Amino acid sequence: MKLNFKIRSVLGCYVLCAPVFALAQGSLNIHRTGSPPVVQVNMAEIDSVVNQLEPPPAQLRVHRTDGSVQAFPFSIIDSVTYSPAGPEGAGLVATMTTQSVLAMVANCRGYVGDIGGSPVTARGICYGTSPLPDLGTAFVTVSGSTGAFNAQVVGLAPGTSYYARAFVTNAQGTSYGNQISFTTLSGDHLNADIIYGSMSDQDGNTYATVTIGSQVWMAENLRATTYANGDPIPNVTDAGQWSTLSSGAWCDYGNNATLADPYGKLYNWFAVMDPRKVCPNGWHAPTDLEWQAFELELGVPVEDLDLVQNRGAAENVGNNLKSAGPLHWVDSDLGTNASGFSGLPAGYRSYTGGFAMITLETSWWSSTAGGSGGWIRELFYGQSGIDRGFNSDRTGHSVRCLMD
């Protein structure tokens, strides 16, 4: 529904006169800089909207059909949007601006102001490359009922324009918010100033390689779905099944296959330790000692190598391992990728089967036992070092292979 307001000046005020207000459906959304972030007014309850300029302070005044007036100073208004109504009794929802947009991930936001005639059964974000996306296109859901919410949209195509609308569903039906648009970032996560080598895995996937000291590493995360001998590694998507595994498995982050390139697959430690080898012939999963040799080459002090904590911060080791620029990391200004290692924030899968920390963290297995599983290495947004720790054998981490 498009509203064409007639504007007339009345004693220093600009009055948005819309004869259809009393018959309109949907909501007028006043997006604010304060709290709540959105104030929604049912269109059927609006008599007129007035931009009062004189006398100051300048404010937007919403005159309702019951005679009441809501006033909003211009200084706290970010924007005003319109959301079309759903079926009678459906809720009211507004789409807020995206919080961050990277190459393959966007953090979208919405606001439910009124649940309508029955409890909310779903809310979230619909998105797509064509205008007015709905539940017939791609969507993500989040928990909760009213108020503001965040919905992380993953698996987007780099350098692509998308449309998005918040939605809310109850027993009466689904309402959609105002439409927004955003464009994902594009570019290469590798360091353009470094000459990379290349290698292929047992599935035919090709990877960039980088030499660091006397070691040759994959400069990208492993994406293989078979062992080196060709046997399949099971793809386990169900969280309950993942949490009880005692054998090798892999998954895509969020079970979203579009993230595999460039983020790679996530593997449990059983897959890393399987004698059939998760890495291709001529390559292997690095030991904890090989990770330490790598870290020493990059500047981690020798006396810190055995510590179970973030190390090498003063030497900027972690940031030199992260991909540079705003493509993937939320805290993109810290990554330099001076090493060429091109660490991407691929997130992880917990031993209970849930996914977390994409755009914020990356972690890689070693082949050395530690705790109830194996030793790992982690990079975090906002931290300039590299973490050494260990994790459960049922946790899903990335794998970087090292040349034999």
Low confidence ranges: 1-23
Count, helices: 5
Query: What would the average pLDDT be, to the nearest integer?
Result: 91
Domain count: 3
Rg result: 26 Å
Net shape: elongated
What does this structure look like?
The chain has about 400 residues and is mainly beta. The protein folds into 3 domains: about 5-85, no CATH class; about 90-185, Immunoglobulins (Immunoglobulin-like); about 195-404, no CATH class. The chain has 5 helices and 29 strands. It has helices at about 240, 260-265, 270-275, 290-300, 315-320; strands at about 5-10, 15, 25-30, 40, 45-50, 60-65, 70-75, 75-85, 90-100, 105-115, 120-130, 140, 145-155, 160-170, 175, 180-185, 195-200, 205-210, 215-220, 250, 265, 285, 310, 350, 355, 360-370, 375-380, 385-390, 400-404. The strands form 9 sheets. A 5-stranded antiparallel sheet has the order 1-2-5-6-7, with no helix packed on it. Strands 11, 12, 14, 15 and 16 form a 5-stranded antiparallel sheet that branches. It is elongated, with a radius of gyration of 26 Å. The N and C termini lie far apart (about 65 Å).
Summarize the structure.
This protein has 404 residues and is mainly beta. It has 5 helices and 29 strands. The strands form 9 sheets. The protein has a 5-stranded antiparallel sheet with strand order 1-2-5-6-7, with no helix packed on it. Strands 11, 12, 14, 15 and 16 form a 5-stranded antiparallel sheet that branches. The protein has a 4-stranded antiparallel sheet with strand order 23-28-27-26.
